[in-house]
UniProtKB/TrEMBL annotation:
One of its GO terms (biological process) is mismatch repair. Its EC number is 3.2.2.31. One of its GO terms (molecular function) is 4 iron, 4 sulfur cluster binding. Keywords: 4Fe-4S, DNA damage, DNA repair, Glycosidase, Hydrolase, Iron, Iron-sulfur, Metal-binding. It comes from Polaribacter atrinae. This is Adenine DNA glycosylase. Adenine glycosylase active on G-A mispairs. MutY also corrects error-prone DNA synthesis past GO lesions which are due to the oxidatively damaged form of guanine: 7,8-dihydro-8-oxoguanine (8-oxo-dGTP). SMART domains: ENDO3c, FES. It catalyses: Hydrolyzes free adenine bases from 7,8-dihydro-8-oxoguanine:adenine mismatched double-stranded DNA, leaving an apurinic site. InterPro entries: A/G_AdeGlyc_MutY, DNA_glycosylase, Endonuclease3_FeS-loop_motif, Endouclease-III_FeS-bd_BS, HhH-GPD_domain, HhH_base_excis_C, HhH_motif, MIG/MutY. Its cofactor is [4Fe-4S] cluster. The keyword 4Fe-4S applies.
Amino acid sequence: MIFSNTLIYWYLQNNRELPWRKTKNPYFIWLSEIMLQQTRVAQGLSYYQKFTTDFPTVFNLANADESTVLKMWQGLGYYSRARNLHFSAKQIANELNGEFPSTYKEIIKLKGIGDYTASAIASICFNEPTAVLDGNVYRVLSRYYGIDTPINSSAGIKEFKTLAQSLIDETQPGTYNQAIMDFGALHCKPQNPLCETCPFSDSCVAFEKKLTKELPVKEKKIKVRKRYFNFLVIKTDNDTTILSERKGKGIWQGLYQFPLIESNKVINKDELILSEEFINLFPLETTISLFNPKEIVHKLSHQHLYTQFWIVETANSAETTIKWSEIEKYPVPILIANFLEAFQAEK
């Protein structure tokens, strides 16, 4: 009880002024929690404000086209979050008459919602004492109690969940959960934690044993895969190009891209034009130039994309149906959005 009281006292003096802190509406809390997964508050704030303005209710979000949702999400990454958000919005609107589930057990059934998000919504909106576990919470608990069980192991997840649940203040679970997350984000930071002014410094194992840099422990990451992307940026005489929607379950599902040739290494122009995919796509004469002299390395969680953008000027074609003047309407990966910004600036 001393731990939770100290934490809540710290929070009441130091909590951040954030728009979703001023509401108990589960729709808004849900939006904020999904957006802040894998995203810093400073980056997610403007997206939250845009979404709540354009989609003030779950019905507004449910009725939007997926392409519109993905376009608004552009830049946040991890696009499966947006697709799951849209899918669940339609489920809530159409099957639950717009009523958000009110218990952890029901909330976690929604697509794209795991233990952390369900716990956050249930505690903040419905006062259910379900403890959250995110990176901030793992860090605070592992340091304070000196726990070196890897936080990304099945044993670690179980151990920390049990501990977190035992510490939650059942009279104000939402406040407690927000307190421990804010404490990890602002005070018990990954690098350079504020140990000298910490309210737990007299009882923190990591501080006493000088283990703050070692804790929490994570098992080694999955090996990163290297991929080599060659985007063919087509420009025709009548200023049209090709964009196509990515299908399947891989990265960027539902987003649009230029024709792509994937190679097994970084290739030059001669190797590109001799590839079967290029010959099939461009039977007529073309003029080709490389836009970025050095490949762009775009890092995703388990893969690094070594990317070249090739400008291909060619005659008009029935395949080139997208006007350059309308290209900004299409949701694209941030990698392509950054290219378009640089390319348009040079035109």
